[in-house]
Amino acid sequence: MRILVLGSGAREHAIIAALLAEGGHDITAAPGNAGIKRDVETVRLDIKSPQLVTELATEGGFDLVVIGPEAPLVAGVADALQKAGVPVFGPTQAAARIEGSKSFAKEVMARAGVPTGIDTTATTMDEVRAALDASKPPFVLKADGLAAGKGVIVTADREAAEAHAEAFLPDGPLLIEEYLAGPEVSLFVLTDGESVVPLAPAQDYKRLGDGDAGPNTGGMGAYSPLPWLAERFGSEQAFVDEVVESVAKPTIRAMAEAGTPFAGLLYCGLIVTKSGVKVIEFNARFGDPETQVVLPRIESGLADALLAAANGTLGTAAPLVWRDSAAVTVVLASEGYPAEPVTGRLIAGVDAAAAVDGVQVLHAATGEGEQGLTATGGRVLNVVGTGATLAQARERAYEALGKIELLGGQARTDIAAGA
Ligand code: AMP
Ligand code: GLY
């Protein structure tokens, strides 16, 4: 299959690596990064432009376009590709609102009867204060629109909660949500708007530091499978089945009924509370860094499943074949991340790291400088270890990470340790 992958992070590198491992595909990435460029052809392109993407896709004769990040979805790139008759994995602009607007997502969940935290919408500081008065700490406040991961605050500090509200209210309404206690799980579901195919659950580490200390980040690591889910639900499959029935299917149905069918990947962000599994967010795309640990566990069928989701034939597509393996990814971030990442520094040791058995080094923000590979952003690399067990995958990931040098680089040392 001739496949165009849009995006430039480790998530897109993971999608490309999985498709390459499957074999038989001709892949181009736009715009990609230095690591992706070592693996496939890359094209410089403003991927938020529906027109430019459609031109590239039609002129290049691609059989499938896979949209990685949310920005092109929200910009209507999938709509333009659909109109031009190019199969696209990723929802329309209207359907992507399930990620782009938290209040829209809440409306869909209410219509679909999907379990989620109770929330209030506030449009003024008076309404925010009243909502905070009515709830008890920790407070959860969410900006309605896309805010590059900075729109959500979870804090016991009333002043910090109000300051967050002051900062984000000018951009639109805020949601004040009930705090949900319990471990988080990300479950990805492929869908063509009707049929759903769940992938394996994964857990993401959002905080910068060991033991979940420090600020929220885009994600500092992840692992899959989640053995503790099997303990709690009897089997991981039982958990997946429950989420498919209580969350994914009703949501997909509600989206279709509203005239905004959702095709692509529905990312269910979940908290396993004492009173059941509840949704804290939906995303309209593969999660980052969870994708880096979910896709290496698929042995075959990925490209066919993505194409079937794009073409509305997922119900009759061949099932994905999974490996009985585990994967752990550790993110290497720049000094100063997430507030003010220092960029431009040289990275050494990537080849030695990638030579460790069962390890893949996926690039998130890298460039090819005169003296070699450099860091160009906050999250720089993902070191992914795979193995027969989580312990082995974890050991391999950390062994490989130890071979990489980046001045001031930050990485957590406890990814998958508790699991
Ligand atoms: P989001 O941007 O919606 O993924 O939220 C960012 C992070 O805030 C999540 O990964 C959770 O750790 C946390 N969070 C969001 N909503 C809640 C909630 N209702 N209760 C507890 N934690 C939450
Ligand atoms: N891992 C969180 C996200 O992709 O939004």
TrEMBL record:
Known catalytic reactions: 5-phospho-beta-D-ribosylamine + glycine + ATP = N(1)-(5-phospho-beta-D-ribosyl)glycinamide + ADP + phosphate + H(+)
What span is annotated as the signal peptide, if there is one?
A: none
Record bears the keyword Lyase? no
Which GO MF terms are attached to this record? ATP binding; metal ion binding; phosphoribosylamine-glycine ligase activity
**EC nos:** 6.3.4.13
The pathway it acts in is: Purine metabolism; IMP biosynthesis via de novo pathway; N(1)-(5-phospho-D-ribosyl)glycinamide from 5-phospho-alpha-D-ribose 1-diphosphate: step 2/2
What top-level class of enzyme does the UniProt entry assign?
Answer: ligase
Q: Which InterPro entries match?
A: ATP-grasp, ATP_grasp_subdomain_1, PreATP-grasp_dom_sf, PRibGlycinamid_synth_ATP-grasp, PRibGlycinamide_synth, PRibGlycinamide_synth_C-dom, PRibGlycinamide_synth_C_sf, PRibGlycinamide_synth_CS
Q: Which residues form the ATP-grasp domain?
A: 106-311
**Keywords, alphabetical:** ATP-binding, Ligase, Nucleotide-binding, Purine biosynthesis
The answer on whether this UniProt entry bears the keyword Nucleotide-binding reads yes
Q: What HAMAP family does this protein map onto?
A: GARS
* Classification via PANTHER family: PHOSPHORIBOSYLAMINE--GLYCINE LIGASE, PHOSPHORIBOSYLAMINE--GLYCINE LIGASE, CHLOROPLASTIC
Family, as annotated = Belongs to the GARS family.
Protein name per UniProt: Phosphoribosylamine--glycine ligase
Please report the organism this UniProt entry assigns to the protein: Agrococcus baldri
Q: What broad taxonomic lineage does this protein's source fall under? A: Bacteria, Bacillati, Actinomycetota, Actinomycetes, Micrococcales
